[in-house]
Amino acid sequence: MNSWCRAWLLGCIVVICLFTSSQTVSAQEKFTDLHKSEWAADSIYYLSDRGTVAGYGNGRFSPHVTVTRAQAITFIVRELYPDLNPLGEMNYWDVPRTHMFYKEIAIATNKGLTGGFPDESFRPDSPISRAETTAILTRAYSLVEGNQSVALADIEGHWASEPILLMASNGLIGGYPDRTFGPDQSVTRAEYAVFLTRVIQFLRADAIQTQDWDKLLSLMTLGEKAGQMLMPDIRMWNGTTTTVVNEGISRPIREQHLGGLILFDKNIVDIKQLTSLTYNLQKQVGDIPLFLGVDQEGGVVKRIPGGTNLPGQMALGAGGKPERSLAAGQMMGDELKALGINVNFAPVLDINTKPDNPIIGIRSFGSSPDLVAKLGVASMQGLQKSGVIPAVKHFPGHGDTTVDSHLGLPVVPHDRQHLEEVELKPFRAAIRSGVEMIMTAHVAFPAVESGQMISQKDGSMVPIPATLSKKVLTGMLRNDLGFEGVIISDAFTMNAISEHFGEDVAVKMAVSAGVDIILMPKDVAGAHQTLVNAVQKGEISKHHIDLSVKRILQLKQQYGLFQPGVSLQSKLQNAGNIVGSDKHRILEKQIAEEAITLLKNENNTLPYRMKEGDHIVIVAPSMEQAKLMERQLSMTEVKQHFTVESIILDSRNSMKAIQSLNKADFVILASYQFRSPINVHDWAGYQALIDQLNREYKRYTLLSLGNPYELLFLRDAKSGIAVYGAQEPNVLAGMKVIFGQLEALGTLP
User: Residue 668 CA to chain centroid, in angstroms?
Assistant: First the structure.
């Protein structure tokens, strides 16, 4: 076989490798023959991850093999026009329609990227020169002259001097030590990868700097775009909790080009560890930073140990002061930003109109649409002032439900007028006030979306929830309410979605409906491939994906995520000064104290004035809560000596409880109802204790630690207060009210 045939055959093998390797496979490919081409390795892997180049198999990339004209065009076409079909005919005698590179050469010719020779040949298998490489790249990417000056001794009078100088002026090429460029030298696969990568990354950096998101989108692969629309959790890997960057995180960030991550308490040890984790996570990505989010609502839903744990949204509702809600949002945001978190899935804008709602309750500001709107917008604006993105939730409203969407599929049966007057009010207010991100509810609203689907769980017909409904998200949220920001789904791991619809179907439905970001897909790689396949099959348009990704990019820029960060040492020092600071603890205390609400106070039972030697009995649902109450009681300013005994409310120790109550001078009967059906709460046990205390004329108070609905189910309670959360600041403030050191100023919200 002569040398021309060997070169032609090698070129065929190279391009066959290129076109039989999918993006996913190429992204995972590792090359073992780059040891003499380390200078080009980053570029080779960059293009490999983009699906532009691939190896020969068995770890071979062959970086020193020359690139033919056909191969060089193939790389460019795969980058710029992967789905374009050629228009018209070509007249190259050496590229017949049956030629394996015909399509790519035809596209490049039609686009004016390349041309033939005077003898009407294209010479597809001839090595491409450095000069022609620069000419093709400058045509393909419309480079403009830069401000760098490079003197090259061997390009004067050369036909390609203009494109060579154009690339050199932007710092994309340089000369050899003898100030020559070698324009007629052939280009190896390694060199070509470096040339192409430099141009792409240069133009991407310019697009980011100038905030030209359409230009950046044109330089992103479909895989990159799909990745921006995914925000998985990283709680566990290989059976252990994830608290540092490991392969279980870095691989999906790299291979699925993830746009964000949500962190949970499993990922968090302390301030130093979390700050280091978020810093190192951002180091895993290229030029597009990550959304890093948490659910830091305050109160019962919190993630930051050692941080300031605000008393919760219903506590703010009981206080009723928008300025406190604004300060609380800003304080939370200041701490989250210091820790490297840039998205907070808060505030909750659900209106808790059902006492038996198993999942919202004290997470809501209250049952009044106007109160929720007023305090919710203030909290949202506080987060915005701190530089953290608030993601208000759960649209169109999860408050009027009796099913937890983590466990099942709730339905809100009200008509559209009711939705307008109640559920939608806070969201309208937030949109008018400039909210940039809204989280959807896995809740069905038949008045808006009447469609049903067959459940994959049991074959029954189930309603389509808001997260998957185009009528709700595009029709109502986008068109009717005028929301132009980012729509993020609630977690796809929740049963309302995962049990009934299946992730592949749900991902396509959600994005088609209007969701921009899928939160917590169970199978990250599968969800990513679902989106890619849906676009390639025409099930979801490229334009639709581009609109979502553009919204995401704009929001990241708006909050400064593209700005270069400070050093880890500076971040650690800043976080240590901000998180849990004295200033924040004072605000926490103020909110808790202003929230305490007197539910009932017959015969002026409260306040109870402690006497020397009193015996206080605490009755609590759990030992953890009993110990919390003991600790907070010891922190009050009661001067008298007293003893404390705690009893866990349990049918097995009823005799001990009765004996302890007989010896009590004062009883604190604590109730905690949250995240469990209200009708299965131990109302009978509490009623029996209240009846006994009343019979014996004991002084007592009912201490509501959770959802403050006890008096709807208990009769004849003489005294009661609500603190809206079983957290330290709430309980301490409650103890101070019980023993006369504070006045109960809150109002049931």
Answer: 42
Q: Are strands 437-440 and 452-454 parallel, antiparallel or unpaired?
A: unpaired
Q: Which of 428-432, 452-456, 556-560 comes out lowest in average pLDDT?
A: 452-456
**Which residues are within 8 A (CB) of 210 and not within 5 positions of it... i.e. 6 or more apart?**
none
User: What is the number of other CB atoms lying within 10 angstroms of the CB of residue 557?
Assistant: 15
Q: Is 442 a catalytic residue?
A: no
pLDDT tens string 561-595: 999 989 999 999 999 999 999 999 999 999 999 99
Residue 382 near residue 326 (C-beta atoms within 8 A): yes
Considering only CA atoms, which of 489, 511, 504 is closest in space to residue 443?
489
């040492």: which residue's tokens? 569
pLDDT at 16: 35
Please compute the mean of the pLDDT values over residues 225-247 and round it to a whole number.
95
Q: Which residues pair with 598 in a beta bridge?
A: 721
Q: Phi-psi region for residue 449, left (φ > 0), alpha (ψ -120 to 50) or beta? A: beta
User: 171 near 190, Cβ under 8 Å?
Assistant: no
Q: Estimate the crossing angle of helix 683-695 against helix 654-663, to 10 degrees.
A: 30
- Name the E strands within 678-726: 700-704, 719-722
Tell me how far CA of residue 81 lies from CA of 69, 140, 198, 344, in angstroms. 17, 11, 19, 38
The model's pLDDT over 317-338, given as tens digits with 9 standing for 90+, comes to 999 999 999 999 999 999 999 9
Q: Which uninterrupted H or E stretch holds 464? A: none
Task: Measure the CA–CA gap between 488 and 467, rounded to whole angstroms.
Answer: 9
Question: Amino acid letter at 534?
Answer: A
**Catalytic residue of the set 404, 490, 528, 584:** 490
Q: Where residue 29 falls among pLDDT bands split at 50, 70, 90?
A: low
Given a contact cutoff of 8 angstroms between Cβ atoms, the answer to whether 140 and 76 are in contact is yes
Q: What is the pLDDT of residue 330?
A: 98
Rounded-to-integer distance, Cα 93 and Cα 114, Å:
16
Q: Name the average pLDDT for the chain.
A: 92
Query: How distant, in Å, are the alpha carbons of 320, 333, 642 from that of 340?
Result: 31, 10, 46
The pLDDT value given to residue 107: 94
Question: In the chain, pLDDT over 70 holds for what percent of residues?
Answer: 95
Continuous H helices in 180-321: 189-209, 213-218, 222-228, 247-255, 271-282, 313-319
Alpha helices in 434-523 (DSSP H): 470, 495-498, 503-513
Return all residues near 579 (Cβ < 8 A) that are at least 6 apart: 271, 304, 306, 307, 308, 335, 338, 339
Candidate from 22-26, 75-79, 570-574, 709-713 with smallest mean pLDDT:
22-26
Of 99, 158, 406, 615, catalytic? 406
Q: What is the dihedral of CA 144, 149, 153, 155, to 10 degrees?
A: 10
Return the CA Rg of the chain.
32
| 405 and 443 Cβ atoms separated by less than 8 Å | yes
**pLDDT at position 381, please?**
98
Q: How far, in Å, CA of 290 to CA of 254, rounded?
A: 12
Confidence (pLDDT) at 430: 98
CA distance 547 to 516: 9
**H runs (alpha helix) in 81-188:** 102-110, 130-141, 161-169
* Per-residue pLDDT at 324: 98
Clarify whether 490 is annotated catalytic: yes
Backbone angles phi, psi at 146, to 5 degrees: -95, -165
- Compute the half-sphere exposure of residue 273: CA atoms within 13 Å on the CB side of its CA: 14
CA 97 to chain CA centroid, nearest Å: 48
pTM of the entire structure? Answer: 0.92
